[in-house]
């Protein structure tokens, strides 16, 4: 099963890592990275606890073995 996502509505959405690393479980999408055609290509996720940021392709959030929508 995959998470259903509209990439244009990801900004400020909350996500939980299924397998947390370095106590980073809860994340917020802080930025949408768009290409020249204004299409969302990447998202910037910020860990709530550490403020560490990571950039990934927005489609990676569709993998429910890695990410869960909301804070679980």
Polypeptide structure, described:
The chain is mainly beta and 72 residues long. 0% of the residues lie in helices and 49% in strands. It is built from no helices and 5 strands. Strands 4-3-2-1-5 form a 5-stranded antiparallel beta sheet, with no helix packed on it. β2 and β3 form a beta hairpin. The chain is globular, with a radius of gyration of 12 Å. It starts with 13 loop residues before the first strand and ends with a strand. The mean pLDDT is 94.
Question: What are the SSEs and their pairings?
Answer:
Blueprint: E1 14-21, E2 24-34, E3 40-47, E4 53-57, E5 67-69
Antiparallel strand pairs: 1-2, 1-5, 2-3, 3-4
Could you spell the SSE succession in H and E letters? EEEEE
SSE-based structural type: mainly beta
- Measure the end-to-end span: 17 Å
Overall mean confidence score, pLDDT: 94
Which percent range fits the helix content?
A: under 10%
Shape: globular
The number of distinct helices, counting runs of at least 4 residues, comes to 0
Any low-confidence stretches, pLDDT <50, length ≥5?
none
Q: How are the strands ordered across the major sheet?
A: 4-3-2-1-5
Beta-strand content estimate: over 45%
**Biggest sheet features:** 5 strands, antiparallel
Number of strands: 5
Radius of gyration: 12 Å
Descriptive tags:
72 residues, mainly beta
In short:
The protein has no helices and five strands. With 72 residues, the protein is mainly β. It is globular, with a radius of gyration of 12 Å.
